[in-house]
Amino acid sequence: MMKINYQQFSIEQLHQLLVKGDITPETLIDSALKRLKKFSNLNAVVTSLHKDAEKKAKKLANWTVEQDNLLFAIPFVLKDNIATIGQKTTASSNILVNFVPSYDSTVNSLLKNRQAINLAKTTLDELGMGGDGLYANTGYVYNPWNREHITGGSSSGSAALVAAGVVPFAIGTDTGDSIRKPAAFCGIVGYKPTYGLISRNGVFPYAPSLDTVGIFTNHVDDVAIILDSLVKKDLNDFTSVASNETNYFKNLTNDVSGLKVAVLNYDSYHWDKSVKASFDHLMKTLSGYQVKVDYLDFDQELLKALLPVYMIISFAEATSCHANLDGINFGVRKPGKNYRETMIKTRTAGFGNVVKRRYVIGSYALSEGHQKELFVKAKKIRRLIVQELEKIFAEYDAFIVMPSSNPAPKIKTILKKTETLPKKHDYLEDLLLLANFNGSASITIPLTIVDGLPIGININSAPFKDQTVLNLAKFLSDKINFKNKLLGEKDE
Length: 492
Hints:
By secondary structure, the protein is of the alpha/beta class. It has helices at about 10-20, 25-40, 50-60, 105-115, 155-165, 180-185, 220-230, 275-285, 300-320, 340-350, 355-365, 370-395, 410-420, 435-440, 465-480, and strands at about 45-50, 75-80, 115-120, 140-145, 145-150, 170-175, 190, 210-215, 260-265, 290-295, 400, 440-450, 455-460. The strands form two sheets. An eleven-stranded mixed beta sheet has the order 1-3-2-6-8-7-12-13-11-9-10, with helices on both faces. Helix 2 runs antiparallel to helix 3 (about 50-60). The protein is globular and about 65 Å long.
C-alpha cells in the first residue's frame, strides 16, 4: 500500500484511491498518525484521538466505499473550542482543562455522519482570544516552515497540521482573522464562509456577532467539498442561515471571465519587492482573462478604526459570553469562603493574562459610564465600515486585499511587542477584519515565498456569494501554482 502525504493529494484524489482499493481507510489513518507523531514538536495538539481514529478506520475497512461521499474515511482535526461529545474540549484554557461535553457540535456531528475521521483536538489561543498562536495554556504553537516564527492565531494548531501535511483539512473558527491570517503565515488555504452558513451550535462563543466556523485545506477544491457537507440550516443555532447556493464542488470552476474585481490601492504601502512583483503579476494575469480589475481607495480613517472597533465589540461580547466560566456554573473550581471568593479565585487561576486583559477592557466598555462612548460608538463605526463595503460589492464581484504586510514574524519579536506599547500600528495588518464586520465570504490562498516563509493573498465577496470567492480563488491558485516546502516529504 502506498504512503500518503496529504499535500500531494486533494480529497477527491484520495477518494478515488479508496474507491479503486489502492489505499484503505487504515492506510490513510496510519499515514496521518505517523505524520502527527513526526510533527509533535509543533505543539499543535491538545488531545490526541488516535485510538478512536484507528478503531473507526478498522471498522470502515469492512465497508464498501461510498462513491458519492468524498469525505468517507478522510482524516481531519478539529479546533479545541468545538465540542466533541465524550471527548475533552478545553479551548486551551486552564479553566476548562477537564471539561468533557455531554453534547456534540453540529459541525462534528455532520462530519461523523460523512464518516470522516477526527484525529485530534487542536491547540488555539486561549478561548479563541489571540492572533499569534502563543497564548494556549499548553504553550506556543510553532510554524512548520520555521519553528522560530508564529503560526498566527487563534486557530494555530489546525493551520499548523494542515501545513505540515498531517491531514488534508482542518476545522477552525474565525472572529477577526483567526483562520485567514494563520493560513497566510503557513502557506495554505484558509476559508471563512458567509456568517451563519456553517452552524455554530456546540462551538464555544467568543464574540457572537463576529464568530464564524471555517476551513483549512491545501487545495481550494477541498474547501468546496467540505462546504457541501457543512452548509446546513440548523435550528439549534439562532444565527444559522440558509443559502441559495448549493453544490459548491460541482459548480466550482476557474472560468472567471466577466467578473469585476476591486483591489485595494496600495500606493503608499511599503512593499517587499518580491511580494509586490508577485502581486502585480497576478493582477495583470487576472486582467488578461476578461476580468475587469480596478484599484480602489478605502476611507483611511475607517481603516485605522478597524482594530479599536474590533477590540471594543469583541472584548465586550466575550465578557458577557464567558460570565458563566466562574467555577460555579462551569470551570475548574478553586474553593473559597463564599461564592464571590470562589469566583475570584477560579477566574484568577483559570485565565491567562491575554484573556484577563480583554475581559477588563470589555467590562470597561460595557460599564454604565462608558457604554455610549465606547461600545455603542464602536457599533456605529462598524456600520459605517459595512456601508463602505456594500458600496464596493454593489459594483464589484470581489474585493482583494493583502492579509499581512509581511510573512510570519518571529516569536521573540511578538513577545517583545507585548512588553512595550508600539509607537505606531500598521492598520494594513487589520484588513481581514472587514469580512467579519459585514459577514462576507473571505478566503486566503498562498501567493509567494519571502525569505523562506509564505505570504498569502485574500479574496472577499458579498455575503452569500461564496461560490464567486471559491471560483476566483481556484483560478488564482491555478495560476500561482504554489508549492509547500513540505511537499514530497515521505513518512518516517
